[in-house]
Structures are given as structure tokens and as C-alpha cells.
Automatic annotation (TrEMBL):
Keywords: Glycosyltransferase, Plasmid, Transferase. Residues 165-175 have a biased composition (Gly residues). Pfam families: Glycos_transf_2. Its EC number is 2.4.1.-. Residues 828-839 have a biased composition (Low complexity). This is Glycosyltransferase. Signal peptide: none annotated. GO terms for molecular function: glycosyltransferase activity. Residues 150-177, 816-839 are annotated as: Disordered.
Length: 839
């Protein structure tokens, strides 16, 4: 349970604070807010925790109090949320009771929501009962919250379609006026190779009147100090105000920054200060964009996005990304397109590689704490102190600054400092790590981070187009193909994007990198299209759209996303482009051959979300536009050519390619098994793969019902759809790994394989795996599975059609061959002689 709190009042009724958020779960109670009091404590029957205002400071403090929940039966709080079970005790004020709903109340509310969802789902439930169409089931699961929740949150509209501001060219120039002036504090210790580039960019890219404070902190490299003196003089000649401070001994990062802060405040106490590392490479127009959020008097610090800046890192949060030449400029160009308001979010801390500090908060906390030695954690400490004074810390995606971290001090030393100073932060601010983890989990900068991530992907790809796959959320063979394709892209140094349908929201946009995946969800296509605009070139690949709420719209959406020069490929993992019945089965679950526009069966009609009906001819016309525009239409079996040609007779056959899925030859060789002894025993049918209606569940159930008089036992290696109950004679093994097949054959005594699918599959991994074992493989003679068994020496294609009995065909195939009649030796002396010799 999460809910907002409310005001906290003193003895005179005046508001002295506010509870901003209350969170309650099975293990803890958490209360957050602000209070103008020397102490506040959270008390329950499970314990007490207090927060004290820092000594010597006045005004409100931010509190974040967490207590474990008491066990059931331990007083009011043990009854999980009694209204009297938790209170805030405030020094000099009455207790503030926290009004927490009981678990029964929470469950009742959820039950009502569930019941309301069922009422709204009556049409979908009826459609599922009538047709068994997976799209109805997907709707039911989505509305009831039974689909896996997306790991990504919703995307906001963050990209401004305009051109963005002109970056400006130098100090005090350009159309982005920003603050009147600022002081840039730049400590230097070694890192000579990056130093010229760093200062060149500062000189070229600063677009406000700026003072530069350089601290040469006892570099070991003898080139640094004389070069820095010369450069400081050249900058002064160019019109800059430059202070160069040269301490006699090395002070460490914190000491050097404190010298710079003191100099900045002495010269211009009312100007904001920017802390900048010497390994940070700023773009054009950087200062006005970084300083703009400081116009809010409550903002204490602002941090830009970067490729290496902890919680403001692009494309993956807290995951460093090295950049190829020119990538930073391309990403920052996208940052200028972002809506300045939507691209800003509050953070638990700033990141000190490039951080703007507000003068009003610098006046109250003018120095970094020297306890943090040579660096790391000092900016967290400053941010926590100013936060207790009411300051807020913002991240902005309207600016991207490249950070080549580790140049100031070595990576090994940085790791050691991180470890030691993290412990110091945890001791001083116990709630800080929880806040950071919550920020990472919820990521309020998700949408702009993904927008910049798209620009990163385009820059990393260079001249190559970035793949954009349209995929579903249902798993299966199409998902296996997609996983392999993405892995191949990444091995080739190419990030991939996936636009997924059929999940919690209609659209889920994913960015796949070698270090992980990020993404976001949206109900409308507009924010997704805006994100994809950051890709200079893309190759659109339709993989599978089954499960989408409105599949008829997919072709035109993909065509709208395609820009001049973009590639377009259509893959037929199923037959959704041919018919709303993507298995091509009629309403009674029967395959009656390829489907043309004249098929009138109701299974080949659709209903759109607005209730309008769609005929098969309208459906095929929409998908035909996509197929005709594609550079390539890919089938995975020759068996699909006739199906495709029947539905789309005008499609250019030269652009239709048949290329089966690759299967690891070594894996197939390892699946070979020796025939089991005991040929007189009843055969045992092994069924490979998950079963549902179109995968032949009814056939398997009928076989199980005839087990005593039929083939013997039936074993399903996979899961069975709960809508298709199996008789007890059918053993359901559950999930398996392909390499386990030989062991499973021996364990269950499998003598034959059965592929019972009753629709023309576009490709079947299972049939190739079964054939590789060497055991006899039975499959109905339709689609890719029929073609595969026809071409294999151990394959047994079975007749299939409206006039056949599938179970009878299977039993006939399993029946022992009739004994050959004895031959008359008189008819064939040679045969008789051989017979005699054999006896």
C-alpha cells in the first residue's frame, strides 16, 4: 500500500511539517516527509526510530523513517495496519497518528477492482469461450493484472519536435541567455592527455559570462603545471576571467575543490558554481542548459546526463558506456530536442563530475567535507546536507556531457575510495541507499534517458541502420528467433530496438545493449515514434504481432515509422498477416486449406477495439500494403509459398525468400538415441513442446482416453494449456531443455514421437529435434511439420483434413505391420533355399 500523507501540526494548530508518503508492505512501514522540529520519531508496537535535525542548523529537515512490521498478534500494529498502530512523535507537538487501512480493507478494495474487471471483460471472456482466440485471453489477463508486469515504466512525451536551441559559440553569446554569470571550478591532477580537449570545449561551448577557477593540485606529470599556466594566460587574452591556484602540496580532490569554492565565493558570492572534472568533455551551449533549473530557488544542484555518471548514465542507469568518436555530440544534439521541463527530475543526490550548485545553498554549506579524502561521496554528503535545508537536486536530460572517468585518479584507487566512502555515507545517512535503489527502480528520468539512449544507439551504429523489431510478448519460437537475432546484432557491435505488443501496455519499446536492456511502455504510438526519431537510420523487421489489441493497425503503423532509406522486412512466424485466425483454422478448429479473401468462416473476421467489424478482404488489404512495401518477405519453409500466394496473389515472388531457421548441427547430433530394447512392448508416444488447442491438445487427450486399447502411454514434454485438460493416462512431464531429450527418452521409455499440431506451422523446431533422435516421428501432413517428416527417413506423415480421423490415423501408423505370408518354395527355389539356410 502506498498513499500520500498529510500535514503535521504543532500545539497551536499551525502546520509545522508534512508527511509526503506512507508505504506499507508485509515487512516494513516507511514514512517520508519534512518537519520543522529538532526531532521526529516513528513508533509502532514493532519498535521506534528517530531522526534528529543536524546540530547547528535551523529550519525544516527531510525525514525518511523505516521500521520493520511486528508479527501478527503483537498489539495493534501486529494486526497489520490498525489505525491506532503507528504514530509520529514530534518534539514540542502532539503525536501525529498515521491512519493506515487494515489488510482486510486493502484486500476488499482489490477484490472489488477484480470483480469490476470481470464485468468489463464479459465480451472478451465470451469471445475466448467461443473461439479460443489467444487475443481474447491476452485481453483478460491484461485487464486482471495477470500478465507479467513490464520491467519498465511508462514513457512520457519528452521529445520536442522543434529544432532545439542554438548551442551558442562562446562566453556570453548565443540566444540562450541563462543566468548572467557563473563560476566554473575545475581541479586538475595529472590527466594531461585529456586536459587540452577539456579546456578547449569549455572555451568553445560556454554560452554565459563565466569565471574559470583552475586548481593545479600538485600533478605528478611535469607537463601539467607549465601547460596550464600558458593556457590560463591564453584564456585571459581571449577575454576570460581566470584564476589559477597552485597549492604547494597535493590536497586531494576535496581539498582542491574547496580552494576553488572559496575563490569562487570570494569573487562572486551571488553566482552559481559549476564543479567540473578535468575528464568531462562539455558540448556547445552547455552552461545555459545546465544552469537553467537553478531559476527555481528551491533547487540546490543540477547534474546532466552522461555516459559515466551513476544515476544519470545513458543508455543504462549506473552502467558505464564507452563512446565512439562523435557519439557525444550526436547524443547531445538529441538532448537539445527534449522538452526542458519534461527532461528534469528530482534525484537523491547530484553527481560531481559536472554539477551546478546554487549560491543560496553554497552560502549555507560552503565547503565539501574533507573526511572524504581524495574524493567520491563528497557530493553525496553535500547534497544530503543541503537537502536537510530544503534544497532539491535535479537531473537534467537537456544536456549530455561525455565523461571519461578515472582520469583524475586511477580506477583502482577509485574503487578503494568508493568502498570506504560508501560506508561513511551509509553511517551518516541510513536512508540514502534505499532512496537510491528506489530511484533506480522507478527511474523518473526513464523517458528522456531512453530518448538519449536511442541517439546513443544511432551513434554506435555509425553508418549501419539500427534494427527495429516488431515482436509480441507471448514467447515461443518467434521469441527464440528474436533472442538469437539480437545476440547476433550485439556480436556485430550493433544495438537493437524492439517494439513489443501484447503486454501490460499496448507498446513496450526496448533498447538492447551489450550491457543490458532498458525501455518504457506507452498506450499510444506517439511517444514511441518520437523516441525512434532519434535513430538516424533503422531497419524495420516485422517478427510477430499476435496479441496486439488492434492488429489491423500494425501494417500502417510500421509504414508510418518507415522513413526514406529505412529497410523493411516481414517475417512469417505465423499467419497473422493472412488472417485474424493466425493458425488459419476455421471457427470449428479445422484446417481447410489456404485462406483467400473469399473465405467466409467467422474465424477469419475481426473486431477492432472500437467495436467495428473487419472482413477478411479488408484484413488482407491492410497487410498486403505492408508486404508489398517490404524489401523482403521471409518464409521459414517451402510449405508456406502456397499459403502466401493464395492470400496475396499479386505479391512479387522475387521478394519472397525461404530460409529455414538455423539449428545447431552439433546439438542435433547429440540428440541421437539408440532404439530401446523390448520391441514387443506397447509403444510410448512422446509429445514435444507445449500444448494448446491448435497444437493438437484435443488429439493428445483423445489418444490418452484410448490408452488401454491404443498406443500405450502418452508423455507430454512441455506444459499444457489449462483450457485443454488431459486424461490421467497422459503424463505431463513439464518444461525441459533440448539437450535433455535423450535422457527423457530413456526415463519415459519413449519409442515414437508425435507432433500433433493441427495447423500448418511456418516452422517447427520440435519436429527437427524429434527427427534428430532417430526415433520414428509422426506428424500430420500439413505445413512445415508435414514437409519435414516427408523428407526424413524416420518421418511418418499422416493424412489430415476435414474427412479424416486424426486419432485413427495415429493408431494405424502405430499398428504392427502384418506378417508376410510364407512363400512357396516351389514357386521360387532360390527363395526357398535362402529360407532353408536361414532356418
Amino acid at each position: 500500500m502506498e498513499r500520500p500523507g498529510g500535514p503535521i501540526r504543532g500545539a497551536d494548530g499551525r502546520m509545522i511539517g508534512r508527511v509526503s508518503r506512507i508505504e506499507l508492505d508485509e515487512t516494513r512501514l516507511r514514512v517520508r516527509g519534512e518537519i520543522d522540529a529538532p526531532q521526529i520519531a516513528l513508533e509502532t508496537s514493532g519498535g521506534r526510530i528517530a531522526a534528529d535535525r543536524p546540530e547547528g542548523r535551523d529550519g525544516p529537515m527531510v525525514f525518511d523513517l523505516v521500521l520493520p512490521r511486528a508479527a501478527p498478534g503483537a498489539g495493534d500494529e501486529g494486526r497489520a495496519g490498525s489505525r491506532r498502530g503507528a504514530r509520529l512523535r514530534v518534539a514540542g507537538a502532539p503525536d501525529h497518528a498515521l491512519r493506515l487501512p487494515s489488510p482486510a480493507g486493502i484486500v476488499a478494495g482489490q477484490a472489488l477492482a477484480f470483480a469490476g474487471g470481470l464485468v468489463r471483460l464479459v465480451p472478451a471472456l465470451a469471445g475466448w469461450a467461443r473461439t479460443g482466440d489467444d487475443r481474447h485471453r491476452a485481453t483478460v489477463k491484461r485487464v486482471l493484472g495477470l500478465v507479467p508486469r513490464s520491467p519498465f515504466g511508462p514513457l512520457d512525451q519528452v521529445r520536442d519536435p522543434g529544432t532545439g536551441p542554438d548551442p551558442g559559440t562562446g562566453p556570453g553569446t548565443g540566444p540562450c541567455p541563462g543566468p548572467g554569470a557563473a563560476t566554473i571550478v575545475l581541479p586538475v591532477h595529472d590527466g594531461f592527455d585529456l586536459l587540452p580537449d577539456c579546456l578547449d570545449r569549455v572555451e568553445r561551448g560556454t554560452d554565459v559570462a563565466a569565471r574559470l577557477v583552475l586548481i593545479e593540485d600538485g600533478s605528478r606529470d611535469p607537463r601539467v603545471r607549465p601547460w596550464l599556466r600558458d593556457r590560463a594566460e591564453a584564456l585571459r587574452t581571449a577575454g576570460w576571467t581566470v584564476d589559477l591556484i597552485e597549492p604547494a602540496t597535493n590536497l586531494g580532490f576535496v581539498g582542491a575543490v574547496n580552494l576553488g569554492l572559496a575563490a569562487a565565493r570570494a569573487a562572486a558570492p551571488d553566482d552559481p558554481v559549476i564543479l567540473l572534472n578535468s575528464d568531462a568533455l562539455v558540448p556547445a551551449g552547455w552552461t545555459s542548459r545546465l544552469l537553467a533549473p537553478l531559476a527555481d530557488p528551491g533547487v540546490a544542484s543540477v547534474t546532466p546526463m552522461s555516459n559515466d555518471s551513476e544515476i544519470t548514465t545513458v543508455p543504462l542507469i549506473c552502467t558505464r558506456a564507452d563512446l565512439p568518436e562523435g557519439a557525444a555530440e550526436a547524443i547531445d544534439a538529441e538532448a537539445r530536442h527534449l522538452d526542458a521541463l519534461a527532461a528534469v527530475a528530482p534525484m537523491p543526490t547530484g553527481v560531481g563530475f559536472c554539477m551546478a550548485l546554487a549560491p543560496v545553498f553554497l552560502a549555507r554549506v560552503p565547503q565539501l567535507d574533507t573526511a572524504f579524502g581524495r574524493g567520491y561521496g563528497e557530493e553525496v554528503d553535500w547534497c544530503q546536507k543541503t537537502r536537510a535545508l530544503g534544497g532539491r537536486h535535479l537531473g537534467t536530460a537537456a544536456l549530455f556531457v561525455e565523461h571519461r572517468g578515472g582520469a583524475s585518479f586511477g580506477s583502482e584507487e577509485k574503487t578503494r575510495l568508493i568502498r570506504a566512502n560508501n560506508a561513511r555515507i551509509a553511517e551518516r545517512y541510513p536512508a540514502y541507499d534505499t532512496e537510491v535503489q528506489r530511484f533506480i527502480r522507478t527511474d523518473p528520468l526513464r523517458a528522456p534517458r531512453l530518448a538519449l539512449g536511442m541517439a546513443w544507439a544511432g551513434a554506435v551504429a555509425g553508418d549501419r541502420p539500427v534494427p527495429l523489431y516488431l515482436a509480441h510478448s507471448l514467447g515461443g519460437g518467434a521469441e527464440h528467433w528474436l533472442e538469437r537475432r539480437i545476440a547476433e546484432d550485439l556480436e556485430d557491435g550493433l544495438p537493437s530496438t524492439v517494439l513489443r505488443v501484447g503486454g501490460e501496455a499496448r507498446w513496450q519499446l526496448e533498447l538492447h545493449t551489450a550491457r543490458g536492456v532498458t525501455g518504457g511502455t506507452a498506450d499510444g504510438i506517439e511517444p514511441v515514434a518520437r523516441m525512434l526519431d532519434a535513430l538516424p537510420r533503422r531497419r524495420i523487421v516485422y517478427s510477430c504481432g499476435v496479441g496486439d489489441a488492434d492488429p489491423l493497425a500494425l501494417p500502417d503503423i510500421l509504414l508510418d515509422l518507415r522513413r526514406p532509406g529505412d529497410g523493411l522486412e516481414v517475417l512469417l512466424h505465423d499467419w497473422l498477416p493472412v488472417s485474424p485466425s493466425y493458425t488459419l483454422l476455421d471457427r470449428d478448429g479445422t484446417w481447410r486449406g489456404p485462406v483467400d479473401a473469399g473465405r467466409t468462416d467467422l474465424a477469419h473476421r475481426a473486431r477492432r477495439p472500437d467495436g467495428s467489424r473487419v472482413s477478411l478482404s479488408e484484413w488482407q488489404a491492410a497487410w498486403g500494403r505492408l508486404l508489398s512495401a517490404a524489401d523482403r518477405v521471409r518464409l521459414f519453409s517451402e510449405s508456406g509459398r502456397g499459403v502466401l500466394a493464395t492470400a496475396f496473389p499479386g505479391l512479387d515472388s522475387d521478394r519472397v525468400e525461404v530460409r529455414p531457421h538455423p539449428i545447431d548441427a552439433g546439438l542435433l547430433a547429440a540428440l541421437r538415441v539408440d532404439p530401446l530394447p523390448g520391441a514387443e512392448a506397447p509403444p510410448v508416444l512422446g509429445v514435444i513442446g507445449n500444448l494448446n488447442a491448435h497444437k493438437g491438445a484435443a488429439v493428445v487427450a483423445a489418444l490418452g482416453s484410448r490408452a488401454r486399447s491404443g498406443p500405450g502411454r502418452v508423455v507430454v514434454l512441455g506444459q499444457v494449456d489449462p483450457a485443454c485438460p488431459m486424461p490421467r493416462a497422459v503424463r505431463v512431464h513439464g518444461g525441459y531443455r533440448v539437450e535433455e531429450l535423450p535422457d527423457l527418452v530413456r526415463r519415459h521409455g519413449i519409442t515414437h514421437w508425435l507432433l500433433p499440431a493441427i495447423w500448418p506451422e511456418t516452422f517447427s523446431y520440435a519436429v527437427h529435434e524429434a527427427l534428430a533422435t532417430g526415433l520414428p516421428v509422426l506428424a500430420f501432413d500439413l505445413g512445415a511439420q508435414g514437409l519435414a517428416v516427408r523428407d526424413a527417413p524416420n518421418g511418418h506423415p499422416l493424412p489430415f483434413g476435414p474427412g479424416t480421423d486424426p486419432v485413427a490415423e495415429i493408431l494405424a501408423a502405430l499398428a504392427p505391420a502384418p506378417a508376410r505370408p510364407e512363400e512357396d518354395p516351389a514357386q521360387d527355389g532360390e527363395a526357398g533355399a535362402e529360407s532353408g539356410d536361414g532356418d
